[in-house]
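Support request from a user on the community tier.

User writes: "When I paste my C-alpha cells into the form, the page sometimes reloads and wipes my input. The last time it worked, I copied everything first. Here is what I submitted, just in case something in the input itself triggers the reload:"
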C-alpha cells in the first residue's frame, strides 16, 4: 500500500475519532455541565491518548469552543425555522423556540455563554459573530413593526429584546431567588414581549409589513 492509499484509509478513521471526541465532550457538558468535562474522559471514550485530543483541537479551549460552535449552529437553525409571515408572531415564536432549546439543552447554552478562555485569551470572533447573528434574528420582525425607526435604533432594540429574553430564561432555569418559576416562563416571556412592544407603540394584535 502506497502513501496515498494509506492516507485515504486513515482519513475516515480520523474523522470518526474526531466526531466521537466531539460527541463525548458534548454529552458530558450536556448532562453534567462544563466543569465536569475532562480531556481524559474524552480520550478514553475515543480510545486514544490525551495528546491526540489536543492534536485534534489545539487545546482544552479548542475542544470546548468546537462544542459551543455546534450549539449555536443548531440553535440558530431552529430560530431561522420560525415562520416569518407575521412579525409579531415571529417575535413570540423566536422567544418560544429559544425557551424550548434552553430548557432541553441548558448546560450546552451555559457553556456557550459562560466559558472563559484560559490565560485571559480573547474570545474567538467567529463565535461572537454567530451569537450576534442569532440575536439579530429579532431585527427583521422589529423593523417591520417599527418602519419609522432608524435601522441602527431597531438593531439595538432587537439586541436588547433578545438579551432580556435570554436573561429571563437563564434566571428561570437556574431557579434563583428573583427568577420566574420555570413552569411560568413561557407565559411571562410572552407577556414581557407584548408589554415591551406596547411601550414602543405596538399593541398586541397589531400587524405591519
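"...and here is what came back when it finally went through:"
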Amino acid at each position: 500500500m502506497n502513501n496515498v492509499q494509506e492516507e485515504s484509509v486513515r482519513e475516515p478513521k480520523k474523522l470518526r475519532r474526531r466526531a466521537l471526541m466531539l460527541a463525548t465532550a458534548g454529552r458530558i457538558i450536556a448532562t453534567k455541565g462544563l466543569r465536569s468535562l475532562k480531556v481524559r474522559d474524552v480520550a478514553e471514550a475515543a480510545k486514544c491518548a490525551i495528546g491526540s485530543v489536543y492534536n485534534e483541537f489545539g487545546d482544552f479551549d479548542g475542544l470546548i469552543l468546537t462544542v459551543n460552535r455546534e450549539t449555536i449552529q443548531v440553535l440558530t437553525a431552529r430560530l431561522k425555522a420560525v415562520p416569518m409571515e407575521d412579525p409579531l408572531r415571529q417575535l413570540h415564536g423566536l422567544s418560544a423556540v429559544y425557551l424550548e432549546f434552553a430548557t432541553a439543552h441548558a448546560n450546552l447554552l451555559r457553556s456557550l455563554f459562560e466559558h472563559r478562555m484560559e490565560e485571559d485569551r480573547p474570545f474567538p470572533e467567529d463565535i461572537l459573530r454567530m451569537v450576534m447573528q442569532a440575536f439579530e434574528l429579532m431585527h427583521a420582525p422589529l423593523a417591520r413593526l417599527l418602519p419609522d425607526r432608524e435601522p441602527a435604533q431597531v438593531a439595538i432594540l432587537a439586541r436588547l429584546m433578545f438579551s432580556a429574553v435570554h436573561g429571563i430564561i437563564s434566571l428561570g432555569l437556574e431557579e434563583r431567588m428573583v427568577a420566574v418559576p420555570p413552569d411560568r416562563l413561557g407565559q411571562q416571556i410572552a407577556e414581557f414581549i407584548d408589554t415591551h412592544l406596547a411601550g414602543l407603540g405596538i399593541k398586541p394584535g397589531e400587524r405591519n409589513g
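Agent notes: The reload is a front-end session timeout and is unrelated to the input. Residues 54 and 60 are 7 Å apart (CA to CA). Confidence is low (pLDDT under 50) at residues 2-6. Escalated to web team.
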